[in-house]
Each structure stands twice: as structure tokens, then as C-alpha cells.
Write a structure and sequence with these properties.
The protein is built from 7 helices and 16 strands. It is of the alpha+beta class and about 280 residues long. The model has no long low-confidence stretch (mean pLDDT about 90). It binds 2-acetamido-2-deoxy-beta-D-glucopyranose (NAG).
Length: about 280
């Protein structure tokens, strides 16, 4: 009897220690926190007017997301297979109120594009997908955000439809449930340690991808982001989708920015099969 009480006391203490609320800074720096949303007066059409730091959300000409017209994508023989090497790393799950993310707290591996190394820093989920393929929108999209030493950003993006469970998410489902129970105030974000996370499953099947230069899809909409959208759509279970949305409140359960104009940009495609045939 007494040992049960001790067990429960410890369980409560450890969950209190693991979960915490921290002040928000979605722009990634010490700037004052500015609230934005996905509809109404704080919605995407008005992001640029919410803060001078968000100017590019309105004025930028290379914005994301976009629709990918698969047939119009240009084969470029200089593109190479996405060289990624991910390792198991410790991570923290974060609900910043706008989306659910996973921030690696130890070295998680890297992606090499044109000889330049980008380190995997964090993941971010959006629902429904922000990018569309031939106009088709999917239930989820995950952005694998990589940064180079000189501050450039490269994102690998994976689209999901409902089906079999996603092996990556299986590792963090119970943490997502705990995150959903966290009650932090509006100007705070909830954080919970996810422990050691294996990212190997995220680097499979990159035989074909679409590349273009765009922006972050949330304010401050910073440009010069190298996007790599995997052609193969993966699956997650309905339960996993619900678990990813549950920690977000109301409006933010749908956190997809509208499609942005291409403004003359060309989307390139790398297809291993075609590249082998023509080389
Ligand atoms: C992850 O964190 C644990 C506990 O702090 C530590 O023992 C372990 O070495 C860390 N692993 C990595 C890969 O950093």
C-alpha cells in the first residue's frame, strides 16, 4: 500500500519536472512575442501588418508554401540524391501554441546540398499539409528544418495521408498525450522532454523529390529557404493525427498557410530512375 503511494508520488513529481512552461518567442530571437493566427484579423492575409519584423510575409516574392505542378517540374541533372545522415538524439517536444515541434537538444545529424552541410535542428508539423501536389492537399506535413553554420536554412518536407502508423511518431505518442494535458498561459509554450529519438525512419525513400527556393511558412516568413519536398507520400494513423492536433487549441488545430504565388520561380525535380537512364 505504502509503496503504491510512493510510486504515484514519484510519477507525479517526475511528470511535473518533465513538463514546463516557457515564454514564447516564435521568431526565434529575443523580440517581443507577437501573436498571429490562421483566420480572422490575425490571419495570414494580415501577418505583415502585425509587426515590422513580419514585413516579408506581405512583401516577399519568394514565399512558401506553393502548389507543386508535378508535370511542370524541371529535371535538373545537377541535382543529387538527398544525402542525409541522421543519428539518435535527445529532443524536446514543444507546443508554442501555433504548432507542435520537436527540438533536438543534441547533435541529430545532417543533410548535404551542393557540398554544403546543414544540421538537423528541429521538426514541425502542420495540418493540413501546406504544400500541395497537383492541387492535392494532405492531412499532415512535417518539416525537417536544417541549418548551416552560416545561418542558411534547408527544409526536407514529408506529406502524410491516413493509413498505417508512422514509425517515427510511435516513439513520441505518449509524450504528445502529456503535452495535450499541459496548461500553460497564452503567452507561454509547453515543453516536455522526449528523451532519445531515432530519426532513421525519416530519411528513407528519397528517390524522388522537388526542390525550390522559398520561405519559412510562419512569421517572420524569412526567405532563401531551400525546400526539398519528398515525392513519396507517407502514412500516419488517424490516432496519431489526433494526438498531433490535440495539444493545439481551437483555430490552431488547422495551421496551414495558404498557397503563395510562384512569381516566376521554377520547381526542379530529382528522380533517381530518370537520372540513371539519362546519364
Ligand atoms: C541523452 O540524454 C541522456 C540523459 O541526460 C544522456 O545520458 C545521453 O548521453 C544523451 N544522449 C545523447 C545522444 O546525447
Amino acid at each position: 500500500m505504502a509503496s503504491y503511494k510512493v510510486f504515484f508520488a514519484l510519477a507525479i513529481i517526475s511528470s511535473l519536472v518533465a513538463l514546463c512552461c516557457a515564454h514564447k518567442s516564435p521568431t526565434g530571437n529575443a523580440q517581443e512575442f507577437v501573436k498571429f493566427s490562421y483566420s480572422g484579423s490575425l490571419g495570414p492575409e494580415n501577418w505583415a501588418s502585425l509587426s515590422s519584423a513580419f514585413e516579408l510575409c506581405g512583401k516577399g516574392s519568394h514565399q512558401s508554401p506553393i502548389n507543386i505542378d508535378c508535370k511542370a517540374a524541371v529535371h535538373d541533372s545537377s541535382l543529387q540524391c538527398l544525402k542525409r545522415d541522421y543519428v539518435a538524439a535527445n529532443a524536446t517536444l514543444v507546443n508554442n501554441g501555433f504548432n507542435i515541434g520537436l527540438v533536438y537538444t543534441s547533435e541529430a545529424g545532417s543533410l548535404v546540398i551542393s557540398g554544403k552541410k546543414y544540421s538537423l535542428k528541429h521538426l514541425r508539423w502542420h495540418s493540413p499539409s501546406e504544400h500541395t501536389l497537383d492541387g492535392e492537399r494532405f492531412p499532415f506535413e512535417v518539416n525537417l528544418i536544417h541549418e548551416s553554420k552560416d545561418g542558411n536554412v534547408a527544409i526536407v518536407s514529408i506529406l502524410y495521408r491516413y493509413g498505417n502508423a508512422d514509425p517515427f511518431l510511435l516513439q513520441i505518442t505518449d509524450k504528445l498525450d502529456q503535452l495535450a494535458k499541459a496548461s500553460c498561459s497564452e503567452d507561454q509554450e509547453a515543453r516536455i522532454s522526449a528523451g532519445l529519438v531515432h530519426s532513421r525512419s525519416l530519411k528513407l525513400s528519397t528517390r524522388k523529390y522537388y526542390r525550390y527556393v522559398g520561405s519559412l511558412t510562419t512569421p517572420p516568413c524569412t526567405e532563401n529557404v531551400v525546400w526539398n519536398i519528398l515525392s513519396e507520400v507517407r502514412t500516419l494513423s488517424k490516432e496519431q493525427g489526433d494526438a498531433l492536433r490535440a495539444p493545439l487549441v481551437g483555430d490552431y488545430q488547422k495551421n496551414s498557410r495558404p498557397i503563395q504565388p510562384l512569381n516566376g520561380r521554377v520547381v526542379q525535380v530529382y528522380d533517381k530512375v530518370t537520372n540513371v537512364k539519362t546519364n
